[in-house]
Amino acid sequence: MINDLTGILFGSVLLSSIHVLIPIHWLPIITIGKTERWSNSQTLLATLIIAGFHILSTVLIGLCVGFLGYKLSLFYEAYAKIIAASILGIIGLYYLFSEILHKFGHFHLFDHDHGGHDIFDAYNPYAEKKYNAIIISLAISSFLTPCIELEGYYFSVGMFGWHGILLVSAIYTIITVVLTVLLVYYSLKGRNKIKLEFLEKYEHQIVGMIMVLIGISIYFFE
Predict the structure, then answer these.
(1) What are 122-149's pLDDT values in tens digits?
(2) Cβ atoms < 10 Å from Cβ of 68
């Protein structure tokens, strides 16, 4: 297992940041906001609400997964390390080779394209819908599409007990809220000059590599 909470902190920050930086998580809100002629404050409020629902579902599932990891470590400590490392390794390998798997047979295990976000595409930008109705629909969509790659990480940190689980939850919540709001704010101000195409294109591979490395560290450096 990772020797101390520094490993948990590093892994949580890395996975959470990469997840949030992908434009599909916040760019549709900006697009709809401009179409509906929302003010900047309305768009930022919508961002907070939608991100909040996404965080809520991710953390709720994560608490359950982390609790399972914690219980397993209490009764089957020898196996818990192997299982935790294997889960991260398998999920990581899937992400690493997801493009190949999709090309050959369109295999889907954890297709984190946020299918629930199709509501952004289906939404008619010229239809007259009230602000609250749009927010509710997008919030529900966001709630139904939690951050899957983080859930496997929850299982491994569950072996540290509740302090590890709560630390991951706190880091994920803070980074998601702060980064999402900042990205939307600077985009609204026309300052979004950072090129994220590379990160967006290779998100699965980057996340996969990180999870494999964390899995290896769990197995060899307990």
Answers:
(1) 444 443 456 888 888 888 888 887 887 7
(2) 15
Find all residues with CB under 8 Å of 167, minimum gap 6, and list them. 5, 8, 9, 12, 157
pLDDT in tens, 5-55: 677 788 889 889 988 887 777 878 888 888 778 889 989 999 999 999 999
Say if CB 116 and CB 141 are below 8 A apart. yes
Characterize 173-201 residue by residue with b for buried, 16 or more Cβ atoms within 10 angstroms of its Cβ, and e for exposed.
Answer: bebbbebbeebbeebbeeebeeeeeeeee
Alpha helices, DSSP H only, in the chain? 5-21, 27-35, 40-75, 77-96, 98-103, 118-122, 131-143, 148-157, 162-188, 197-201, 203-220
CA–CA gap between residue 31 and residue 188 (Å, rounded): 10
Q: Is 73 helix (H, G, I), strand (E, B) or coil?
A: helix
Residue range(s) defining the domain that contains residue 54: 5-220
Match 């939690």 to its residue by tokens.
146
Those residues whose C-beta lies under 8 Å from the C-beta of residue 210, and which sit 6 or more positions away, are 11, 14, 15, 18, 92
Q: What angle do CA 121, 124, 130 make, to 5 degrees?
A: 115
Domain count along the chain: 1
SS3 25: helix
Measured CA to CA, the distance from residue 22 to residue 15 in angstroms comes to 12
Q: What is the pTM of this model?
A: 0.70
